[in-house]
Amino acid sequence: MALIEEFNSQGNILFRYRSYIPIIILIAALVLYYFQLHTGLDNFHGYYPWLCLGVSLLGLIIRVYTVGHTPKNTSGRNTGEGQLADTLNQTGIYSLVRHPLYLGNFLMYLGLAMITGHLWFVISFVLLYWLYYERIMFAEEHFLRNKFGEQYLKWAASVPAFVPKLGNMASPNLSFSWKKVLKKEKNGIAALFGLFYVFYAFHIWALHPELSYWNNIWFCLFVSSLTLYLILKILKYQTNWLEQEGR
Fold this sequence. Notes:
two-stranded antiparallel ribbon, 8 helices, 2% strand, mainly alpha, 64% helix
């Protein structure tokens, strides 16, 4: 098989299992963090955990902005029906970078990898993410090139794949939709704050058993995000409030 077909095939397979890479990374991070705590190394104090959270929140903001301005079935994929793209996104954040959602994912995971305080683990995560998502991005772009042809080639020639370019951003074609964001990103919001709380709970368990597991800001953030998730889940299945035509 030629490399172009092999990369495309690998990318389509990896996309189907893309939800598992965060689980593998997080399990490894928690194991590493556990052993480091038992050596007396404490990273979860002072400003450092907030720096890590800030990196993850930057990734979440990128995802929120991207999702909020995109229409339905555009530059996207559906695991049941294959790849979908009724139109090619070229405005808004897509005028700066071709894969903003994967950039957002990277930063969200990077903040969690950083909380371990282990440089080599962070470097390993970056390399793993690059190898994993490079194939996925290749498969997506292979599909978009075949579907949109010259339109895609002109866009790709001026917009980088992953590292955003500096310059003027083209205004999005659609207004921002909070309903779409709440519908699509509720899982990520709850998971992000929940995972940071898990690291904090490890920190208390190993080093500070005298501290409370629930009387702290990390627990409040976790409970708030979980409550939001449950409310939105109910709204999604019991009402049409989150539905918006074309989004």
